[in-house]
Amino acid sequence: MAIYEINGGTPLNGSVVISGAKNAAVAILPAALLVKGRCRIENVPDISDVRILLSILSGMGAVIRTPEPGVVEMDCTDIRQTLPDPALVKKMRASYYLMGVLLGRFHHSHVALPGGCSFASRPIDQHIKGFKALGALVEEGNDYVAMNPGPHGLQGNRVSLDVVSVGATVNIMLAATLLPGRTVIENAAKEPHIVDLANFLNTMGADISGAGTDTVKIRGVASLQGGTYTIIPDQIEAGTYIAAVAATGGDVLVKNVIPKHMDCITSKLEEMGAQITNYDDSIRIVSNGRLNATTVKTRPYPGFPTDMQAQICVCMALAKGESRLTESVYETRFFGYCTELESMGAYIQIDGKTATVYGMEKLHGATVRARDLRAGAALVIAGLAASGTTRVENIHYVERGYERLIEKLTALGAKIHRVEE
Ligand code: UD1
Q1: What mean pLDDT do residues 335-339 have?
Q2: Sign (positive/negative) of CA torsion 241, 243, 245, 251?
Q3: Is 117 tagged catalytic?
Q4: 8 A C-beta contact, residue 381 and residue 316
Q5: pTM of the model
Q6: 293 and 156 both lie in a single domain
Q7: Would the pLDDT of 119 be above 60?
Q8: Are 306 and 23 in contact (CB under 8 A)?
Q9: Which of 68, 155, 329, 370 is the residue whose CA sits 20 to 30 A from 217?
Q10: Which range of residues forms the domain containing residue 64?
C-alpha cells in the first residue's frame, strides 16, 4: 500500500498545468463506442479511472492506441464483446455510462452495477427512468442492469428528470444519440462536462442542442463518424489547486483552465480573502494563508460544486471565525473527511446537511485516511497547510482523479512524497 507523506507549512509558488477533465473523459471515452471510425481524443487525463475504462473498452474489442501522452485514439468499428467485464465495471462509478452506450448502439445491454466512491447512496433510478422512456425493457438484478427493446422498440422521447442528475443526463444522451426520433431531457444537469460530451458527439455527427441549459434536445442520427476532439480542462482539479494555495498561502498561476467554469469556486475564495486574477485560460491566485470565514451551499452547476465541498472545508478550518457549509447534493459527504480533519486540529460540528466549521490558527500533521477521491484531496490540502508531518492513507482514491499530483505539487514547492509501505 502506498501513502502520501507531507511535510506541511511551505507556501506554494510557481505554475501548474491542469489536466483534462475526469468527468468529461469518463463520459467521452465510452461515447466513442457509438462511433464507427477512428476517434482521436486529446487532453485525456492519465488517472486510474481512465485506465480502467480503457481496459474495459479494449476487452470489448475497441482498438486503442495512445500515440502520445494525453492522446487516445480509439476505433470501435468492430465490437465483438458487448458484455463489459463486470470485475472492471465494479471498480469505478462512471462505468454505468456503458448502459446507455450499449443500449444506443446494440439495442441491448447487460452491465454490472458500478463501484466507485461511496460517500453516499448513489441511486440510478433516473437513468432507468430515462432508458424506459426510450422504450427499453429494464431488468434490475442484484448486481447488474440488463436492457432489451420493449414491444414498441427503442425511439426518442421526452424525459423529465425528478432530480438534476449528471449521470442520468449523460446516460440518456448516450442512449438517444443513435435512436430514431427526438429526445428531450428536461431538468437536465448543466455541468461543463455535459456540454463537453455534447460537443464531442456533435463533432462526430450527432445532433444535440441545449447542452448547458436545463433542456437538452437530441435528434437521433443513423451513424457517427470518426474525428478529433479535445477534452476541456478539469474544473475540480483546478479548484483543488486553487484551494490548496488559498489554505497554504503562496502565489500560483493555474494554467489551462476555463475561468468561467471556475467562477463558482473562485468567487468564494475571493470572498475569503484570496486574490484571484482571471486571464484568458489561466487564473492567478495569491494568498497569505489567513482566510475569512464564509458560507457555502453546494448545488448543481453553476452553483458551488459538491466535488469541492471537502477542499473548501479545509480553507474554512483555517479561516478567521465560524463558517457554514451546507451540502445539498450528497448529504453524507461530510463523513468522508471531517473526523480526519479533526484529528489534525480542526473543529467541525455537523448538524444534518450543514457543518459549522470553527476556524483555527493552524492544523497539525497526523495520520489520516482518504475515504473517497475529493475527501482524499482535501486531506492532502490540509497536510500541505498543517505544521509537521501528515500521512495520507488509502491514496488509491486520490489517484482515481488527479493526474501526476505529486509531480505538480512538488513543482510548486510542496514537500510531498509517495511512499510504498
Ligand atoms: C457526478 C460526478 C460526481 C459529482 C456528482 C454531483 C461524474 C462521473 N461524477 O456524479 O463527481 O459528485 O455528479 O455533481 O460525473 N440521483 C438520484 N437518482 C439518480 C441519479 C442521481 O436520486 O438516478 C441523485 C443523487 O443521489 C444525488 C443527485 O441526484 O443526490 C446528483 O447525482 P448525480 O448528478 O447523478 O451524480 P453522479 O452523476 O453520480
Answers
A1: 92
A2: positive
A3: yes
A4: no
A5: 0.96
A6: no
A7: no
A8: no
A9: 329
A10: 22-230
